[in-house]
Specification:
The protein has eight helices and seven strands, in the order ααβααβαββααβαββ. By secondary structure, the protein is an alpha/beta fold. Helix 1 packs parallel to helix 3 and helix 3 packs parallel to helix 5.
Length: 264
């Protein structure tokens, strides 16, 4: 089992704390079946290595950065190669800063654990963490793997992003702004799907045409079966499978992970 990256230094009054959904993503992406899938897709290409560019792995809504750090630090194990490029995006500036720290510390820990200096580095390379809205900062058809743990809780509306760093803001206003930022990490609007629907609409424009992959986490009230059917109606070359589920947990927050794939 691969160790979970530390987030002990993150200010969870301002940043989403890793929870069951985060750990389900880690467990699913590091499962034997999914590692086999990823290494077959991205592992060394015999006789064609020079033609292969480094895969770009993007997490939307990084929060503490625990998932992005896991994928970057254990790139060699999970993808079969270490030359991946990772990028985080979050609408919360504090999450962006936390993500960079989490990824850098996780990669450093992995490299410190390598006893044999002649061994491959093993970790990927973090480009940065961008303060932005969903895929607005991404070039068309540039993402090989996209991960999204969305705000999936059904709510009456989706809060509007606010600037939380105004110099003249009074203390109470700052507290309200921090609360608004945290609510952006869970408040999903109608059926908990308003933000996820926006992201789904953007997938065709950002995933690479040949084999781009997206991992989307949903809860029971998001009606994941209907979401999967909708994606299948996009037609060829789109495919979708449920590859991860939470345990036999009571209540409505039972979780699923969809793997959406474009092309061969």
């Amino acid at each position: 089992m691969l160790p979970t990256p530390s987030t002990s230094y993150v200010d969870f009054d301002r940043v989403y704390e890793p929870a069951e959904d985060s750990f389900l993503l880690l467990d699913t992406l590091s499962s034997t079946k999914e590692v086999s899938f990823l290494t077959e897709r991205f592992g060394p290409l015999k006789g064609r290595d020079a033609e292969r560019s480094s895969p770009l792995i993007v997490e939307i809504g990084t929060g503490s950065g625990v998932v992005l750090a896991f994928l970057t630090a254990y790139a060699q194990t999970l993808f079969g190669i270490s030359d991946i490029l990772s990028l985080g995006i979050d609408i919360n500036q504090y999450a962006c800063k936390a993500s960079i720290q989490t990824v850098e510390k996780a990669c450093q820990n992995v490299n410190d654990d390598l006893q044999d200096a002649s061994r491959p580095r093993g970790t990927g390379f973090l480009l940065t963490s961008v303060n932005g809205d969903l895929t607005s900062a991404i070039r068309p058809e540039s993402v090989d793997v996209l991960i999204f743990n969305p705000p999936y809780v059904p709510t009456s509306d989706v809060p509007t992003a606010v600037a939380a760093n105004g110099r003249n803001r009074e203390k109470q206003a700052c507290l309200d702004a921090d609360s608004d930022m945290l609510s952006l990490s869970y408040a999903g609007g109608v059926d908990g799907m308003e933000v996820t629907n926006r992201l789904l609409d953007q997938l065709p424009s950002v995933l690479v045409a040949d084999g781009g992959i997206a991992y989307i986490l949903l809860c029971k009230q998001n009606k994941p079966d209907e979401v999967a059917q909708r994606i299948r109606q996009w037609g060829a070359p789109w495919m979708v499978d449920v590859i991860g589920r939470s345990g036999k947990q009571g209540g409505w927050e039972k979780l699923q992970i969809l793997r959406i794939r474009r092309g061969s």
